[in-house]
Specification:
Two copies of one chain form a homodimer. By secondary structure, chain A is α/β, with parallel strands linked by helices. Chain A has two domains: about 5-195 and about 365-459, Zn peptidases (Aminopeptidase, 3-Layer(aba) Sandwich), CATH 3.40.630.10; about 195-250 and about 300-365, Alpha-Beta Plaits. Chain A is built from 15 helices and 20 strands. The first copy, chain A, has helices at about 5-10, 10-25, 35-50, 120-135, 160-165, 170, 215, 225-235, 255-265, 265-275, 290-295, 335-350, 375-390, 405-410, 435-459, and strands at about 55-60, 65-70, 80-85, 105-110, 110-115, 145-150, 175-180, 180-185, 190-195, 195-205, 210-215, 300-310, 315-320, 320-330, 355-365, 370, 395, 415, 420, 435. A six-stranded mixed sheet of chain A has the order 1-2-6-3-7-18, with helices on both faces. A four-stranded antiparallel sheet of chain A has the order 12-14-10-15. Chain A has a three-stranded antiparallel sheet with strand order 4-5-20.
Chain lengths: ~450, ~450
């Protein structure tokens, strides 16, 4: 056991109290009303970096929410520098969504902490801060450390594109570790080397010039909700594939070697699906297995729909408009804007003349695949094996971390995705939580990862 | 000009101030939070009946909202008795729906009063109260008058069924006038002799056991919003007819004579459609013209839909459930429960095995057609012609007044539907309003109607 590892173990109770402090702040980036809370979370992190002893700590404003950047260069200029990326913003959460405890009052129960952001991604942020603290406090850090935490990941990191370009020099590093995302098992580590991109859009349909009485006009007006449903239905084929012409044109097929590698994790991903998604049956493209559909195939999803009166009671209204939120997950070599344009043109072509529609682009993030044979990935693999006692599976992650593409483009550095979240922890849903023992292993893995990177360079 | 007619004219400003008082009370029957407001509206009406001099005024509790019943029997036992039905409850209304002025702060502008309930149906209630006042105050009432106002019409009058049965004796009358609904023109009166029934239902679809991350599970789970859209789409045929097996089985075909009569009002209904509905194009069963589709054909309407995150911003959620509010307008001889059952069975049969669905019955009201050649209809026709200077068109009304069926069944009395509302006044929608000059004509028409009924009996 290293000194840093022992330090982390003996300080773990304090670490988890600090995690709870950060979880109390409702840093919801998509809701303008929470802007001050997002800033409060950034300030909390910057304060902790100063406590830990980072040499430079800066809260850098962006067009929307600030970035927190801390630099500790105490390992000297011959030592390698590791840049770690994470995010401190969270998704919206309301009791009405089905929470058992208030989402911003962290509640510890059965070795878990329940709170919005517990798994996505404040426990990742804190794992980074506490791993760095353990190395710095014990004087054993073998690398220089740059920690970069953004506040707009849940709104697809639109600011990071320009931020990374503008601060390219400051972000220079020998290794970049992206700390977000999640693993599919509590005992079996995995290493994601692929991330899907995402494009978020909005479809609005108008019929009558305003809400009208369904008795007076029903049967003579194309109901916007119905027209919207008809359009939505035509976006998929009966086999679960997306019906938008050209949608799959630039999708890179999987090699047989990669399909074989992905298959190793399949039974294990299927078990997790049954536990967490727990839908009556699987659905989707039958030509691809569950792991491939999650990580290596693009999708089109309806994330929200609204129209008319859908509260308790009944209102016999024929609504003037209806709205759907639609997103696509993308895989290489798809890119967001052309996909949006294909959808826009297809929707325009299938919108019946009895209604009007508008399809708007809201947010984008591009897909990425990193080299799973690179040095950073190998250092992470060894660290995971040491802490978990098992070699990690290599997986294609279904979620999106848009900044990965920006960092790949600007830094051209060896990169690894290190996720300590467990998929069964309800990221984005009600009763999101983190397992304290998995989180502790995350801190230990990061400490081991720094040691592996440092050792490799000295060797 | 009769004494009562002159009285109504000279007191009109006070009448309209009283209408505004009643419009200030948000008597929304479908929302439990407004229960006290509904009771306040009932009390206001009872007070006005007492001011006018009704002999018996009673607020009669029901399982849900109270009925107000006033009886003035001063014309003597040889004079005919007229029972008038109306309702004082209103639909929900919120500024966010697109109101330009607060819905419960009546605003007078350009000869109109804007407020929720202005047209549906508090101006009808007040027309009845003020016509009765004009006759009673001038000592010229040729009939005994019973006014019956309910507070549950907007929740399909479920209580009136048992109420009418329980109070059959008290409600006995020679003529029943139903005062609700609306006309299609501001200068051309019409007389509705048909009303559609309504059955209100709710369809819920479940997929994953709770909301999940659309990146982690998208493409492997049948999205409940999409499954709901697929089900909704299959409820109609491409020609606009309802695709539910057996839906049209008991629909009485229109006779050629009735089709010809309805055709008279068609150009005029088409103009109103273009003004008020103002959708890009007409929609619906191509084998029937606009008037027939509104009044003589059954429909299936999606009144509301909700699922996932549809607010400002974006949440990449794959929702655990989605909900649609669905209603059917019915025509003779359809009945509500069998129609619900046909829908329920069809929806169960088309729900894919990848999701679960439940289809619930919420509220019902049966369709009705009354004898358009009866004495009450003829007295109303003459009154309308006198006040408007034009013979009324006979029309089939698209809306529903569930109590008509109950009154037909229990009282077996000559009946007429007298509507002073204008369809272009946004009933159930934002910026609902009433034209003061049309409302004044409504009061004058009621006075003339009472005179016609009294004269007919004396003759």
């Amino acid at each position: 056991m290293t000194a840093a590892s022992a330090y982390a173990q003996s300080n773990f109770n304090r670490f988890s109290d600090q995690l709870k402090e950060l979880l109390c702040i409702p840093s919801i980036s998509t809701l303008p009303a929470h802007r001050a809370d997002v800033e409060r979370a950034a300030a909390w992190i910057a304060d902790d970096m100063r406590r830990i002893g980072f040499h430079t700590v800066e809260i850098i404003p962006t067009k929307w929410h600030p970035v927190v950047l801390g630099e500790w260069m105490g390992a000297g200029k011959d030592a390698p520098t590791v840049l770690v990326y994470g995010h401190y913003d969270v998704q919206p959460a309301e009791m009405a969504d089905g929470w058992h405890t208030p989402p911003f009052e962290p509640t510890e129960k059965d070795g878990k902490i329940f709170a919005r952001g517990a798994i996505d991604s404040k426990s990742n942020v804190m794992a980074q801060l506490k791993a760095a603290e353990s190395l710095i406090a014990t004087g054993t850090a073998p690398c220089n450390i740059k920690l970069l935490f953004e506040g707009d990941e849940e709104t697809t990191s639109e600011n990071m594109n320009t931020f990374v370009t503008a601060h390219r020099e400051r972000l220079q590093a020998d290794v970049v570790a992206i700390c977000d995302g999640s693993m599919s098992d509590r005992e079996q580590p995995d290493l994601a080397y692929g991330l899907r991109g995402v494009v978020c859009m909005e479809l609005e349909v108008w019929g009558p010039k305003q809400d009208v009485h369904s008795g007076h006009y029903g049967g003579t007006v194309h109901n916007p909700i119905q027209a919207l449903a008809e359009i939505i239905t035509r976006l998929h084929n009966p086999d679960g594939s997306v019906a938008v012409p050209g949608f799959y044109d630039t999708v890179q097929p999987l090699s047989e070697e990669e399909r074989a590698e992905l298959k190793k994790a399949l039974p294990w991903i299927e078990t997790e699906w049954k536990d967490v998604a727990a839908a009556p049956q699987q659905w989707g493209e039958s030509a691809y297995n569950l792991h491939e559909r999650i990580g290596a195939r693009p999708t089109l999803e309806i994330n929200g729909i609204a129209g008319g009166f859908a509260q308790e009671g009944f209102k016999t209204v024929l609504p003037g408009r209806a709205l759907a939120k639609i997103s696509c997950r993308l895989v290489p070599d798809q890119t967001s804007v052309p996909i949006y344009e294909k959808l826009r043109d297809f929707i325009a072509s299938i919108t019946p003349p009895t209604v009007r529609s508008e399809f708007r682009l809201l947010e984008t993030g591009e897909p990425a695949v990193i080299d799973r044979h690179g040095a950073a990935v190998q250092a992470a693999s060894a660290a995971l094996e040491m802490v978990w006692g098992k070699k990690p599976f290599f997986v294609r992650e279904g979620g999106s971390i848009p900044v990965v593409v920006d960092l790949q483009r600007e830094l051209k550095t060896d990169m690894v995705l290190l996720s300590f979240g467990y998929k069964g922890c309800a990221a984005h849903g009600p009763n999101e939580h983190v397992y304290l023992n998995i989180w502790e292993r995350g801190i230990q893995t990061m400490i081991a990862f720094y040691h592996n990177i440092g050792a490799k360079t000295q060797a």
